[in-house]
Specification:
CATH class of the largest domain: Mainly Beta
Number of strands: 12
Low-confidence stretches: none
CATH topology of the largest domain: Jelly Rolls
Bound molecules: adenosine-3',5'-cyclic-monophosphate
Strand content: 15-25%
Structural class: alpha+beta
Number of helices: 10
Length: 226
Amino acid sequence: MNPDDVLGKAPLFSALDRESAAALRTGISEVELHKGQTLFSEGETGDRLYVVLDGKIKLIRTAADGRENLLSVLGPGEMFGELSLFDPRPRTASAIALTDVRLAGLGHDDLRPWLTGRPEVALHLLRALAQRLRRTNDVMADLVFTDVPGRVGKALLDLADRFGQRTEEGVRVHHDLTQEELAQYVGASRETVNKALADFAQRGWLRIEAKAVVIMDAERLAARSR
Ligand code: CMP
C-alpha cells in the first residue's frame, strides 16, 4: 500500500474530507527507525501520536525485575501514542521497532484543535480507543480463563487477521516475533509456548518458520482456542 493510502485509512484521517486531511497532514513529520531502535520509553513525557506507515512496532511494558510484557504489535495504518494526548501523563508503554519502520508523527498540540473543532475526528479516535479497550478486556479474560495453547492459538489467529497472506498452503503470518516475544505476548514461558507450537505443528494445523507461521487449519486452531 502506498504511504498516502495508509495514512488516509488511519482513524484520524478517514474521518476527514480531502481538504481537511491535507491540512492535518501539514503538521506531520516522518520518523524512520531501524529494527530494535526505541521510539519512546514507558514513563517519558509524550507529546506526539504516531501512525505506522510501513513495518511493525511493538509496545511493551517492563516489570521492576526486567521481565517484559508485549502489549501489542502494530502494522501499517495503526495508531499509538494517543493515551498521553487524552490524559496528559507519562507514556504508558515503550514503543520499539520490531522491523525497520516508518512512522508519521503528529504533535498533540497540533491535534487538539481538530478534536474540538471536528467532532468526527474525536469520534474516530474514541472508536479506536474503545476497540483497544475491548481487546484488552479479551486479553485479560483469556489470561484467566484460557490455557497457554489456547492463548497461543488466539494470538496467531489475531496476527493472521492483520498480517496474514493467503498462500496455496494456508495463511502465512510473518509476525516478526521471536519465540521469546511470542511468549511475552501471551503471558507464558517460552518453553510452554514452544510446546504448544510444536503440538499444533505435529497435528498438522500449522508449520513453524523463522519469525513466521503458516496456518494450514485455521478452523481447528480456532476451535482449540475457544
Ligand atoms: P501513550 O501512553 O501515549 O504511549 C504508549 C502507547 O501504547 C499508548 O499511548 C497507547 O497508544 C499504546 N498502548 C498502551 N496500552 C496498550 C494496550 N493495552 N494495547 C494496545 N496499545 C496500547
